[in-house]
Amino acid sequence: MTGNPGDIVGPVLSAHQAHDTWQGKVATVLSGEPTIHEGGRPWMLVDARDVAMAEILMAESGNIESGERFMLSSGDKIHPEDWGPRITELFPDYSGLPTVTEPAIGAEGQPPRNDPMWLRVYLRHDKVANATGFRFTSFDDTLSDMVTSLVEVGGVQPHSA
Q1: Which ranges of the chain does DSSP label H, i.e. alpha helix?
Q2: Under 8 Å CB-to-CB from 26, ≥6 apart: which residues?
Q3: Mean pLDDT throughout 3-27?
Q4: What is the pTM of this model?
């Protein structure tokens, strides 16, 4: 069987994970700098802890046939420019976080635009839920744990206005 995860986020376990990862991109926003716009695709999220648990439950399940494929995604999606406002909702002391992104590399300063196609994309997780009984972590819980770990473990200095 295969469990194919979306964009994996969640708490970091060591300082080096606060850089050059999806969490590192959130750390950039948390420190007050805009992240790079990546072609207008939102992040299709899944908590790292959920990926691990879903994989274990799938491996232990007697209901899953050999060769089955599962999408491991919470169903949440977020555009990079929305990380700042979402963090500020949960952590009001971290204010003044960016609400825009930098143009993608090679975009020659063009203002970023989100491709409207992505508004219609939804990654379903009902197959893995039905096969294992698993329920994904809420976005707010994942974001809260990720931001807390980026500060406490990753050493990120959060921006505050």
Answers
A1: 22-30, 48-60, 83-90, 126-132, 139-152
A2: 9, 35, 83, 87, 146, 147, 150
A3: 93
A4: 0.89
Asked if the model's pLDDT at residue 155 lies above 90, the reply is yes
Q: Which domains does the chain have, with CATH numbers?
A: 2-152 (3.40.50.720)
Write the CA distances from 3 to 29, 53, 56, 67, 115, integer angstroms.
29, 11, 10, 11, 27
pLDDT in tens, 70-109: 999 999 999 888 999 999 999 999 999 998 887 766 666 6
The answer to whether residue 137 scores a pLDDT higher than 80 is yes
- Taking a C-beta distance cutoff of 8 angstroms, is the pair 161, 32 a contact? no
What DSSP string describes 79-112? -GGGHHHHHHHH-TTS-S---S-BPPTTSTTPPP
Backbone phi, psi, residue 71, to 5°: -90, 125
